[in-house]
Amino acid sequence: MISRLTRALIIDDERLARNELRRLLKEFPDIQIVGEASNAQEGLEQIQSLEPDLLFLDIQMPDKTGFELLEMLDKVPTVIFTTAYDEYALKAFEFNALDYLMKPIEPRRLADALQKLRQQEEKEKQQLLGRGVLSENDQVFVKDGERCWFVKLYDIRLFESAGNYARVYFGQNKPLILKSLNALEERLDPRVFFRANRKHIVNLRHIEKIDPYFNGGLLLEMKGGEKIEVSRRQAVKFKEMMSL
């Protein structure tokens, strides 16, 4: 049993579907519904203001799809897709979805999905209890296939999301590790590593150049030549953090 409430947001353009999911979730007292939205734009605004732990997210909506909504986020909560269409299942898991529920949602399938959520949260909790935040001088072991490295975090200039994996940039190397960007962010020192957008965490020590960018964002050029966009929302945090 998880020790805290999981704050959930329902995003679905069908009012009856939202009501039915609310009804089903009454059986799970550890799930707190903090809001609901009928389209992607409303969903974006509520995610930014409410910061939910979990999204119940429809895919086909009038303005933007659920996938397009996730692409607008800097940090994606845990996602359970709820949809009447089965052809999006493969793409859903490219977004690290916890589960994919077909409408009408079966109570048993909902219970299975929430059991996965409990297991995931317990695993993350144990990892955090067992491991503290890493400093830039800590050395980490990186393995990709048959190749292995011991790398100081100071020398890693960039982490890039690749589905369930993350690509680690240091020197001329770009190995993949089986860690999500969210899990990495929990362990990295926020004074050194900054979440630029949904797909990238950058090492502030390795920024070569900063330029204004589209729609109030920033464009970072890393010492390795990579160009990383900082979203408008994250650009505000970046400027606050880097100012005197």
UniProtKB/TrEMBL annotation:
<feature type="domain" description="HTH LytTR-type">
    <location>
        <begin position="142"/>
        <end position="244"/>
    </location>
</feature>
<dbReference type="GO" id="GO:0000156">
    <property type="term" value="F:phosphorelay response regulator activity"/>
</dbReference>
<feature type="domain" description="Response regulatory">
    <location>
        <begin position="7"/>
        <end position="118"/>
    </location>
</feature>
<dbReference type="InterPro" id="IPR046947">
    <property type="entry name" value="LytR-like"/>
</dbReference>
<dbReference type="InterPro" id="IPR007492">
    <property type="entry name" value="LytTR_DNA-bd_dom"/>
</dbReference>
<keyword id="KW-0597">Phosphoprotein</keyword>
<dbReference type="Pfam" id="PF04397">
    <property type="entry name" value="LytTR"/>
</dbReference>
<dbReference type="Pfam" id="PF00072">
    <property type="entry name" value="Response_reg"/>
</dbReference>
<protein>
    <submittedName>
        <fullName>Two component transcriptional regulator, LytTR family</fullName>
    </submittedName>
</protein>
<dbReference type="GO" id="GO:0003677">
    <property type="term" value="F:DNA binding"/>
</dbReference>
<feature type="modified residue" description="4-aspartylphosphate">
    <location>
        <position position="58"/>
    </location>
</feature>
<dbReference type="InterPro" id="IPR001789">
    <property type="entry name" value="Sig_transdc_resp-reg_receiver"/>
</dbReference>
<dbReference type="InterPro" id="IPR011006">
    <property type="entry name" value="CheY-like_superfamily"/>
</dbReference>
